[in-house]
Structure formats: C-alpha cells, structure tokens
Inverse folding.
C-alpha cells in the first residue's frame, strides 16, 4: 500500500511538471486582419471642379481607389488621389493626374484613421460635365 501511494505521488508530481512544459509564452498570437470594406462615392465633375470624400480605415492593410465609371467620355483624363482627412481638408498622399475609367490608385495604411479620396479636373479639360463613380476598398 505504501508503495502504491509513493507511486501515485510521484506520478502526480511528474504530471504537473510535464503539464507545464510546451506552453511557450513567446508564441505570438496573430490577430486576424480586419474585413475589407468598400465605399462607393459618386457625383458630377465640372470644368476645374473637384470633390473629396472621407472614409474611415479600421486597421492596417491595402487601400485601393478605383474610378469605376466616368461618363460620357471615359477616356477623358481626370485626377484621382488618396490622402488623409483632417476633418475638412484632404491632404493628398498618392495622386494620379491622368486617371481614366478603370484607373486604380493603390496605397497601404499602417494605422487606423480618417482617409479620403479626391477627384478633380486635372488639366481643365472637362468641357462637359462628367459623372463618376469611385469605389474605395480598405480595411
């Protein structure tokens, strides 16, 4: 009986020691990326006109603005930009002054915050009003 109790105590102690192994606290827990959202902005661009649209990024990742529709002249170049939004002004960071329908301005965000997309008549060549649709995908 004494031998059985000794073995049980030894087995219990060994179980506690082995149970504590393998739990490496340096294993990093990687959070899943935030879901990708798409915001759609539309309007009409006139001669020398411009419009800016703010959106909120909830995590780090890829931001992409695409000029999905430009009508009636889809080959008339306009400006398309991505930037940061301070509450009233779009501070341009990435710009394509020669965007036509289908053009993409890609970027990356390393933080959350307020960003913006801007469309403008880059060269004063929008003689007749152009309707547009911009899709912005972001985390």
């Amino acid at each position: 009986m004494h031998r059985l109790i000794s073995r049980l105590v030894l087995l219990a102690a060994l179980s506690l020691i082995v149970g504590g192994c393998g739990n490496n606290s340096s294993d990093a827990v990687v959070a899943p990326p935030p879901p990708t959202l798409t915001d759609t902005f539309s309007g009409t661009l006139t001669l020398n006109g411009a419009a800016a649209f703010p959106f909120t990024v909830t995590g780090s990742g890829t931001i992409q603005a695409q000029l999905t529709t430009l009508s009636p002249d889809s080959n008339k170049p306009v400006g398309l930009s991505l930037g940061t939004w301070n509450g009233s002004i779009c501070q341009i960071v990435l710009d394509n002054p020669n965007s036509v329908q289908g053009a993409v301005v890609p970027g990356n965000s390393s933080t959350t915050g307020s960003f913006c997309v801007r469309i403008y008549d880059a060269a004063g060549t929008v003689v007749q009003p152009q309707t547009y649709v911009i899709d912005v995908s972001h985390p």
